[in-house]
Design goal:
With 145 residues, the chain is mainly alpha-helical. It has helices at 6-23, 29-45, 56-78, 82-104, 112-144. Helix 1 runs antiparallel to helix 5 (112-144) and helix 4 (82-104) packs across helix 5.
Amino acid sequence: MHPAAPAYLRVVRASGWYDLIVTAGFATPWTYALVHRLLSAGGETAGLGAMPALTPMQMLYANLMGSVVVVWSVLRVVRPLPLHGLLDGAARVLFSLWQAYALAHGGPRVLWPFLVVEVSFGVVQLAPWLRAHATAAGRDGVRRS
């Protein structure tokens, strides 16, 4: 799949929808309090542990992240472009790193399903760019010989 292919743009749009659905609840203090309770209850029920107690700073950072991700998600849903997939893939590498870091340092195991999705969308969105780059580098190497 090439980054400009319609199938790739469908992946970019799908990742936007996923992010919008998953993070819209983080965007306001009222909805994040509900999401926090749901994640804690779901984590406890599944044996993955509860979320840490809600603090004003945690609320602030959740709301900031939720607001930015909602805007970024809407952009990818409304106007998916190859560059959006590249940038989203890079952002997913960062999100995956920080989720893995949190898990390695005692974060709630309820993060695992989110980490799996982050890594999956990251791989799917970055792989075509890496293949295109490798192909271009191979062609350039052939020309120089």
